[in-house]
Amino acid sequence: MGKSKELSEDVRKRIVDLHKSGKSLGAISKELQIPKSSVQSIIRKYDLFGCVSTLPRSGRRPKLSHSDELKLVKMFKDNPGTTKVQIWQELETAGMQVSLSTVKRVLHCVERPKLSSKSSGGSLGAELAKELQQVGVRASAYGGRRKRAVKKLPLSEENIQGRLQFCRKYVDWTAEDWCKVIFSEVSTFQLFTSGKELVRRKGEACQKSCVADPDMVRVWGCFSSKGVGSLTLLTRDTSMNEEWYQNVLQEHLLPTIHEQFDDDKYFFQHDGAPCHKAEAVTKWLKDHEVEVLDLWPENSPDLNPMQNLWSFLKKQVDKQKPTNCDQLQALIRQEWFTINRDLVQKFISSMPERIAEVVRKQGQPCEF
C-alpha cells in the first residue's frame, strides 16, 4: 500500500477548529472524509505542540515511542539538578540504547510547548493530560514548571511483572543468603558546576568551540558483605559494549571474587543492560564459572543496594567540592576504599525487607 497523501495545513486547521467546537473525532472524520486515526494524530500534535504544521523529521522510525518520551520528560522535570547528559547516561545504564542527540531533541521539543486548555470534555487534550498523569507529569509541567525530584523511574506493566517474578523467587532468602551476593552497577558522578565561561558572538552558541564538555565521570564498581570490591573509571569516549564489559569482568570482577570469596559459594548480580546480556559475555561468565543471580528486573534501582552505596559515596565526594575532573576522579578512588564494611553490610541486610515490600506493594517501588 502506498503512502497516503499528506493533509494540507488548511485542512489540519479545519480539524482543530471542529474539535474546539466540541465535535467528536468520529464526527470530524465523517464530515471531512478523513481517517479517524489521522484526525486523532493532528489533534494530539496540536495539543502537545500548539501547531498543525509539519514538524522536522528524519524519515526513520523514532527511537523512542510516545510513552518513552513521556517517561523521559518526567525524569528531566522531576530532577531539576540533572542535566540532559546525565539523563542519557541513566537511560544507557537502564539498557535503553538511544543517542545523546535523541535525548536532547526530545527534551528540547517538550520543555516549552503549551498544552491546549480549551479542549472540551472527552477531548484528546484531556486524554493526553490523563496519560501524563499516569506517568506522574502534570500538563503544566510541559511549560517549564518543576516538581520535587524523585529518583525512581516510572514502571511499565512489564517492569512490574518482572519485579514480582524476581521478588517472589527470592522472598525466602535471608540476610545471610544475600551476604553471598556480589552487587555491581555503573554510576555517574558530576561536578557541582563546570565554572567554565567564554566570550562568543551572537549566533555562536551552538558552535562546537562554544559548547562546554560535560564535567562528569562514569564509574563501574562492585561490593559484597565483605566490603567494597574493585572500581574502574570509564574514559569519556568509552563505549559500554560487550568488549568493554568482558574486560571489566576479567580485570575487576575476578580479582574481587578471589579476594572476597576464594572457594566459598557466591552469586554475581548485574542488571539487564545489553552488554550484560551479550552472547559473548554470557559465554565468558559460564567459562569462568561465575554463577549469576537470575531474573534481575529492569528499572529497579530501589532493589539494588549499590544505589545506597553510590549515594553515600557521592555525598562524601561532594563534601570536598572538586573543581575539575582530575580531582573528581581522585576523590572517587580515595573515598571508595575508605567505605566501612559495616556500612555495606547494613545496605545488604536490608534486602529481605526490600523484597518483602515490593511483593506487598504488588511490584511498586520500595522505600530504600
From TrEMBL:
Q: Where is the Paired domain?
A: 1-110
SUPFAM superfamilies, alphabetically? Homeodomain-like
Name the domain of life: Eukaryota
Q: Name one GO molecular function term.
A: DNA binding
Pfam hit, one: DDE_3
Biological processes per GO annotation: regulation of DNA-templated transcription
Keywords attached to this entry = Paired box
> Does the keyword Zinc feature in the UniProt annotation?
no
Q: Which InterPro entries match?
A: Homeodomain-like_sf, HTH_SB, Paired_dom, RNaseH_sf, Tc1-like_DDE_dom, Transposase_5, WH-like_DNA-bd_sf
Family annotation (PANTHER family)? SI:DKEY-77F5.3, TRANSPOSABLE ELEMENT-RELATED
Q: What is the name of the protein in this document?
A: Paired domain-containing protein
Q: Which organism is it from?
A: Cyprinodon variegatus
